[in-house]
Amino acid sequence: MKTIVKVATILVFFSVSIMINLAEEAPNLSESEVATLIEGIKSENYGLMRSSIFIAGKYRVEEAVEALFEVLERESDPSNLVLVSLAIYRIGNLEAMMKVIETANNSENNHTKNILSAIAMNYLVENEIPFSLK
Fold first, then answer.
1. Which residues neighbour 116 within 8 Å (Cβ) at sequence distance 6 or greater?
2. What's the pLDDT at 29?
Protein backbone atom coordinates (compact mmCIF):
# COMPACT_ATOMS: atom_id res chain seq x y z
CA MET A 1 0.00 0.00 0.00
CA LYS A 2 2.82 2.42 0.85
CA THR A 3 4.46 1.72 -2.52
CA ILE A 4 1.26 2.65 -4.35
CA VAL A 5 1.03 5.92 -2.42
CA LYS A 6 4.67 6.73 -3.16
CA VAL A 7 4.25 6.01 -6.88
CA ALA A 8 1.05 8.08 -7.00
CA THR A 9 2.80 10.97 -5.22
CA ILE A 10 5.72 10.86 -7.64
CA LEU A 11 3.34 10.85 -10.62
CA VAL A 12 1.43 13.84 -9.22
CA PHE A 13 4.65 15.82 -8.67
CA PHE A 14 5.86 14.90 -12.16
CA SER A 15 2.55 16.01 -13.70
CA VAL A 16 2.59 19.29 -11.79
CA SER A 17 6.17 20.03 -12.87
CA ILE A 18 5.21 19.43 -16.51
CA MET A 19 2.22 21.76 -16.18
CA ILE A 20 4.36 24.45 -14.57
CA ASN A 21 6.92 24.25 -17.37
CA LEU A 22 4.20 24.45 -20.02
CA ALA A 23 2.66 27.49 -18.31
CA GLU A 24 5.89 29.52 -18.25
CA GLU A 25 4.88 31.62 -21.22
CA ALA A 26 3.08 34.75 -20.10
CA PRO A 27 -0.48 34.98 -21.37
CA ASN A 28 -1.78 38.16 -22.95
CA LEU A 29 -3.98 39.53 -20.20
CA SER A 30 -6.88 41.79 -21.09
CA GLU A 31 -7.54 45.03 -19.22
CA SER A 32 -10.37 43.41 -17.27
CA GLU A 33 -8.16 40.45 -16.31
CA VAL A 34 -5.43 42.81 -15.07
CA ALA A 35 -8.04 44.81 -13.14
CA THR A 36 -9.34 41.60 -11.56
CA LEU A 37 -5.79 40.57 -10.64
CA ILE A 38 -5.18 43.96 -9.01
CA GLU A 39 -8.44 43.65 -7.05
CA GLY A 40 -7.26 40.23 -5.92
CA ILE A 41 -4.01 41.75 -4.65
CA LYS A 42 -5.99 44.35 -2.69
CA SER A 43 -8.39 41.72 -1.33
CA GLU A 44 -8.84 41.01 2.38
CA ASN A 45 -9.14 37.32 1.47
CA TYR A 46 -5.72 35.98 2.43
CA GLY A 47 -5.60 33.15 -0.12
CA LEU A 48 -6.86 35.30 -2.98
CA MET A 49 -4.36 38.04 -2.13
CA ARG A 50 -1.40 35.65 -2.03
CA SER A 51 -2.43 33.88 -5.24
CA SER A 52 -2.89 37.19 -7.04
CA ILE A 53 0.52 38.41 -5.89
CA PHE A 54 2.12 35.19 -7.13
CA ILE A 55 0.37 35.43 -10.53
CA ALA A 56 1.37 39.09 -10.90
CA GLY A 57 5.01 38.12 -10.42
CA LYS A 58 4.88 34.95 -12.46
CA TYR A 59 3.46 36.74 -15.50
CA ARG A 60 5.32 40.00 -14.86
CA VAL A 61 2.21 42.20 -14.73
CA GLU A 62 3.70 45.70 -14.62
CA GLU A 63 0.28 47.26 -13.98
CA ALA A 64 0.16 45.51 -10.59
CA VAL A 65 3.16 47.40 -9.15
CA GLU A 66 1.05 50.09 -7.42
CA ALA A 67 -1.10 47.44 -5.74
CA LEU A 68 2.06 45.63 -4.64
CA PHE A 69 3.32 48.92 -3.16
CA GLU A 70 0.15 49.10 -1.07
CA VAL A 71 0.69 45.56 0.22
CA LEU A 72 4.30 46.38 1.17
CA GLU A 73 3.08 49.40 3.14
CA ARG A 74 0.25 47.70 5.04
CA GLU A 75 1.51 44.14 5.47
CA SER A 76 3.29 42.91 8.58
CA ASP A 77 3.31 39.16 7.80
CA PRO A 78 6.90 38.25 6.81
CA SER A 79 5.80 35.58 4.32
CA ASN A 80 3.61 38.09 2.48
CA LEU A 81 6.42 40.64 2.39
CA VAL A 82 8.73 38.04 0.85
CA LEU A 83 6.06 37.02 -1.68
CA VAL A 84 5.50 40.63 -2.72
CA SER A 85 9.24 41.23 -2.98
CA LEU A 86 9.67 38.18 -5.20
CA ALA A 87 6.80 39.36 -7.42
CA ILE A 88 8.44 42.78 -7.75
CA TYR A 89 11.75 41.09 -8.50
CA ARG A 90 10.13 39.09 -11.32
CA ILE A 91 8.37 42.17 -12.70
CA GLY A 92 11.69 44.02 -12.74
CA ASN A 93 10.54 47.49 -11.73
CA LEU A 94 13.44 49.51 -10.26
CA GLU A 95 11.23 51.96 -8.36
CA ALA A 96 9.38 49.07 -6.77
CA MET A 97 12.64 47.37 -5.86
CA MET A 98 13.73 50.56 -4.08
CA LYS A 99 10.52 50.26 -2.04
CA VAL A 100 11.54 46.69 -1.16
CA ILE A 101 14.90 48.00 0.05
CA GLU A 102 13.13 50.64 2.14
CA THR A 103 10.84 47.98 3.62
CA ALA A 104 13.86 45.80 4.42
CA ASN A 105 15.60 48.70 6.16
CA ASN A 106 12.49 49.44 8.24
CA SER A 107 11.74 45.82 9.14
CA GLU A 108 12.14 44.87 12.78
CA ASN A 109 12.24 41.15 11.97
CA ASN A 110 15.87 40.27 11.16
CA HIS A 111 14.93 37.20 9.14
CA THR A 112 12.57 39.22 6.93
CA LYS A 113 15.14 42.00 6.65
CA ASN A 114 17.79 39.53 5.45
CA ILE A 115 15.55 37.89 2.87
CA LEU A 116 14.26 41.18 1.43
CA SER A 117 17.81 42.53 1.32
CA ALA A 118 19.01 39.42 -0.51
CA ILE A 119 16.23 39.75 -3.08
CA ALA A 120 17.03 43.42 -3.62
CA MET A 121 20.79 42.81 -3.82
CA ASN A 122 20.30 40.06 -6.37
CA TYR A 123 18.14 42.37 -8.47
CA LEU A 124 20.70 45.18 -8.31
CA VAL A 125 23.60 42.89 -9.21
CA GLU A 126 21.75 41.15 -12.06
CA ASN A 127 20.76 44.48 -13.58
CA GLU A 128 24.20 46.02 -13.00
CA ILE A 129 22.77 48.88 -10.97
CA PRO A 130 25.42 50.63 -8.86
CA PHE A 131 24.74 50.56 -5.14
CA SER A 132 26.54 50.92 -1.84
CA LEU A 133 26.02 48.98 1.35
CA LYS A 134 25.03 50.64 4.60
1. 81, 82, 85, 100, 101, 103, 104, 107
2. 83
